[in-house]
């Protein structure tokens, strides 16, 4: 916090070719910027090499919103650009371009940080479907988002609704690892590293930002892919944070042991659900299998290129395990 004054806050929106979603979000952020003192700044980091959001964001230039173009591909590069754009601000708040904060969102986050003096505050990101979802998709649990009592300490968080105390982040020398930029999981690694270095992340359940889920994601294929990716991101981050080669192998073996127990149980659960004609239970069991498959392959360096931008016709890379710390990207 600045000596003798309240904290200065910057809200960062990361975007990549979703300009149609920005006006509603920027209108809400402009309104909420004045709910904290001093008034928060808003920066939009455009990760499209062609700068497709420049025109949309430019229309808000006189209203406390500024534009930053980060042409280097990957979510980590965009997040690190937001860290740089925050300058000497005290707080940086991330929100995704497919989200819309609820009333009082920013004030709740800042108040929570002020109350606990923590390194980060995370809030819920409930999903709102923009299309019809069948019983399998809606019952899979993939779109169920965690809710916790306000003040709960958490061991990690996504960055779609996250406040960072920049003084603590910089004191710990943390940034988003750009080796995770095209695969996702950079926020898992960042927040887990934050906690392992002794920092505190708290939950603020009132600081809600709704995520809009387009119809093309409301499919079984997308749900299974996301389950796999989430598992692989988590285990890859854990392996990355382990101490030395022995620590990495202990983490891998622990993942394998858990998978050896949970996957057969999930298989039995899926069979039972099929006999009972319980669609939701079957979906949950199948997504558990997908998640553990992701956990296992992620622990050995295989990841899905969630944010990969390959030229048309480029074959996917599906070779053997990569050296520790370097991902082997599976085809989309």
TrEMBL record:
Give one GO molecular function term: glycosyltransferase activity
Family matches, as InterPro entries? Glyco_trans_2-like, Nucleotide-diphossugar_trans
Q: What is the lineage of its organism?
A: Bacteria, Bacillati, Actinomycetota, Actinomycetes, Geodermatophilales
Q: Which SUPFAM superfamilies match?
A: Nucleotide-diphospho-sugar transferases
Give the metabolic or biological pathway.
Answer: Cell wall biogenesis; cell wall polysaccharide biosynthesis
Coiled-coil residues are none
Entry's transmembrane regions: 285-305
The name this protein goes by in its record:
Glycosyltransferase, GT2 family
Q: Does the keyword DNA-binding apply?
A: no
List the biased-composition ranges (Low complexity).
313-323
Region (Disordered): which ranges? 313-332
Where do the Glycosyltransferase 2-like domain residues begin and end?
A: 11-137
């Amino acid at each position: 916090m600045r000596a003798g004054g309240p904290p200065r806050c910057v809200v960062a929106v990361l975007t990549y070719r979703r300009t149609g979603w920005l006006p509603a979000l920027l209108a809400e952020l402009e309104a909420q910027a004045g709910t904290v003192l001093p008034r928060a700044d808003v920066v939009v980091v455009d990760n499209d090499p062609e700068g497709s959001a420049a025109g949309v964001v430019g229309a808000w230039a006189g209203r406390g919103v500024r534009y930053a173009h980060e042409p280097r591909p990957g979510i980590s590069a965009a997040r690190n650009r937001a860290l740089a754009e925050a300058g000497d601000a005290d707080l940086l708040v991330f929100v995704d371009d497919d989200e819309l904060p609820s009333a009082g969102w920013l004030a709740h986050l800042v108040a929570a940080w002020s109350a606990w003096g923590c390194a980060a505050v995370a809030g819920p990101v409930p999903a709102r479907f923009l299309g019809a979802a069948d019983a399998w998709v809606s019952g899979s649990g993939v779109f169920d988002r965690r809710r916790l009592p306000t003040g709960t300490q958490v061991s990690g968080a996504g960055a779609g609704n996250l406040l960072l105390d920049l003084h603590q982040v910089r004191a710990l020398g943390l940034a988003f690892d750009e080796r995770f930029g095209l695969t996702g999981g950079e926020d898992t690694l960042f927040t887990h590293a934050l906690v392992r270095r002794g920092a505190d992340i708290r939950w603020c359940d009132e600081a809600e930002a709704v995520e809009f889920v387009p119809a093309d994601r409301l499919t079984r294929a997308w749900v299974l892919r996301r389950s796999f990716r989430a598992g692989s991101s988590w285990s890859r981050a854990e392996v990355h944070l382990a101490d030395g080669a022995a620590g990495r192998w202990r983490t891998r073996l622990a993942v394998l042991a858990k998978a050896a127990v949970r996957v057969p149980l999930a298989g039995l659960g899926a069979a039972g659900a099929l006999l009972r004609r319980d669609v939701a239970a079957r979906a949950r069991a199948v997504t558990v299998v997908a998640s553990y498959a992701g956990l296992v392959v992620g622990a050995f360096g295989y990841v899905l290129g969630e944010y990969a931008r390959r030229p048309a016709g480029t074959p996917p890379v599906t070779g053997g395990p990569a050296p520790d710390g370097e991902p082997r990207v599976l085809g989309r």
